[in-house]
Amino acid sequence: MAEEVSSQMNSLSISETNPSSSATISLVSGDDIVFKVEPTIAKEMETVQSFIDETDGKITTIPLPNISSHDLPYVIEYCEKSIAGKITKEFEAEFVKKLNNEEVKELFLAANYLNIKKLLDFLSQVIADRIANKSVEYVRRYFGIENDFTPEEEAKLREELAWTFTGVDPDDEDEN
Amino acid sequence: MDLLPPLSPPSSVISSSNSNAVMDSGERNWPDLPRDIVLSIFVKLDLNDLLTHAYSVCTTWRNISKDPSLYRNISMPNLCSLKAFSDLEMLYRRAIDYSCGQTVDVSIEFLGTDDLLRHLANSASHLGRLRLELCYSVTDRGLCEVAEKFPYLEELDISISGLSHESLRAIGRCCPRLKTFKFNFKSYRHQGTENDHEAFAIANSMSGLCHLQLIGNKMTKDGLLAILDRCTQLESLDIRRCYNIDFIASLAKRCKEQIKYLHLPYDATDDMSVVSEGDLDRSSVDDYEFSYGSEISQYNSDDNYYDF
């Protein structure tokens, strides 16, 4: 028993200090593109890591059907910066500048699916910033949410909060 | 390596069983996002966006926008130019109601009234921090009436108000945990305005204070001495713009010995916009309470700087 534990610990320390090419993790996007990443990147993605752990590290090819090959590189880039300790305000500003609204939403869902806490936290702030002080109609369009209030509820709401439907920022044209 | 069947998404993730759904982003069903994920966005919205826009989007969002966890800190600054006071007060009331007594930190600017304070007192019994800035409509009577409902208050910031020593005594009596107290005015530098009532009220009823800020107070050296005598745990003391204090050498020495972080009457108040705003750029200084920046800056001493 003691021997088993120690040999396990040895193999762990070897794989951590000396990641051979076979230890690389293959992430397969929903459109079947394979992305090879270091195991440290996988560690940032809790969903992936717990999957690897469950199979004792024997399985290193992970299908991610909910994430497209368009979005996965962004996720990997963020994770790489994160483990390098290089998530700065400047990096985040540049990172988000590249993303349109739809991509922000897709990445948010990807971060949620992969359970990457830092990315999730960052993107929820980005989304909050993008819908802050916007009209209700804009927020509905942004999230693709249908107005499910009854006409009576809607009328009551307009009466209650009449002043909130004015004084908001103009809607962004960037909806794609 | 074997290719496994697709990972089944964790329970907190919306399911999208075929890869086409991934590519067709328009099909994502945002209203079905798990509650905690929507909350992670909502918690980053300000109170106005939360209580008006998010609240009005759909039934699900309305329910989520009422989550008590979103209202532990209630603060709504910089909206006075946009909204009528009555509308803002309604937002505060709703935020207080939704908090279900979980509010620990409330900050009110401009629109505070006795009624709003009473509403807060009746719903937020665990309040630890309260800030009232420019709330002229809060009266001594109103504050004295509710002080006993805030037994857990540790920090109270009242900047520019119509309140007097009567409120201070009630707070001192009812809030035994109070560690930080700020009671600021613009300034009084004219003869005949000396008044130690507030300083004595603090000295007599708030002996447990660690941090005290009394910018622009009318107290004299007697008031300051009373505070130094009774509030023996004070670590920081800010008496900027207290121009009535006759700072004889022995008093200055005592302050420096007893207080770790000290701001003296003629130190600059650039960091305190609430008291210094309008000082220099007013072409006609028609309010006699305003003082002049040039006289302050010459006594500025950076080594005494501290931050609450």
UniProtKB/TrEMBL annotation, chain A:
<feature type="domain" description="SKP1 component POZ">
    <location>
        <begin position="25"/>
        <end position="81"/>
    </location>
</feature>
<dbReference type="InterPro" id="IPR011333">
    <property type="entry name" value="SKP1/BTB/POZ_sf"/>
</dbReference>
<dbReference type="GO" id="GO:0009867">
    <property type="term" value="P:jasmonic acid mediated signaling pathway"/>
</dbReference>
<dbReference type="InterPro" id="IPR016897">
    <property type="entry name" value="SKP1"/>
</dbReference>
<feature type="region of interest" description="Disordered">
    <location>
        <begin position="1"/>
        <end position="23"/>
    </location>
</feature>
<dbReference type="InterPro" id="IPR001232">
    <property type="entry name" value="SKP1-like"/>
</dbReference>
<dbReference type="Pfam" id="PF01466">
    <property type="entry name" value="Skp1"/>
</dbReference>
<dbReference type="InterPro" id="IPR016073">
    <property type="entry name" value="Skp1_comp_POZ"/>
</dbReference>
<feature type="domain" description="SKP1 component dimerisation">
    <location>
        <begin position="117"/>
        <end position="163"/>
    </location>
</feature>
<dbReference type="GO" id="GO:0016567">
    <property type="term" value="P:protein ubiquitination"/>
</dbReference>
<dbReference type="GO" id="GO:0006511">
    <property type="term" value="P:ubiquitin-dependent protein catabolic process"/>
</dbReference>
<dbReference type="Pfam" id="PF03931">
    <property type="entry name" value="Skp1_POZ"/>
</dbReference>
<comment type="subunit">
    <text>Part of a SCF (SKP1-cullin-F-box) protein ligase complex.</text>
</comment>
<keyword id="KW-0833">Ubl conjugation pathway</keyword>
<dbReference type="InterPro" id="IPR016072">
    <property type="entry name" value="Skp1_comp_dimer"/>
</dbReference>
<comment type="function">
    <text>Involved in ubiquitination and subsequent proteasomal degradation of target proteins. Together with CUL1, RBX1 and a F-box protein, it forms a SCF E3 ubiquitin ligase complex. The functional specificity of this complex depends on the type of F-box protein. In the SCF complex, it serves as an adapter that links the F-box protein to CUL1.</text>
</comment>
<comment type="similarity">
    <text>Belongs to the SKP1 family.</text>
</comment>
<comment type="pathway">
    <text>Protein modification; protein ubiquitination.</text>
</comment>
<dbReference type="InterPro" id="IPR036296">
    <property type="entry name" value="SKP1-like_dim_sf"/>
</dbReference>
<protein>
    <recommendedName>
        <fullName>SKP1-like protein</fullName>
    </recommendedName>
</protein>
TrEMBL record, chain B:
<feature type="compositionally biased region" description="Low complexity">
    <location>
        <begin position="1"/>
        <end position="19"/>
    </location>
</feature>
<dbReference type="InterPro" id="IPR036047">
    <property type="entry name" value="F-box-like_dom_sf"/>
</dbReference>
<feature type="domain" description="F-box">
    <location>
        <begin position="27"/>
        <end position="74"/>
    </location>
</feature>
<protein>
    <recommendedName>
        <fullName>F-box domain-containing protein</fullName>
    </recommendedName>
</protein>
<dbReference type="Pfam" id="PF12937">
    <property type="entry name" value="F-box-like"/>
</dbReference>
<feature type="region of interest" description="Disordered">
    <location>
        <begin position="1"/>
        <end position="21"/>
    </location>
</feature>
<dbReference type="InterPro" id="IPR001810">
    <property type="entry name" value="F-box_dom"/>
</dbReference>
<dbReference type="InterPro" id="IPR032675">
    <property type="entry name" value="LRR_dom_sf"/>
</dbReference>
<dbReference type="InterPro" id="IPR006553">
    <property type="entry name" value="Leu-rich_rpt_Cys-con_subtyp"/>
</dbReference>
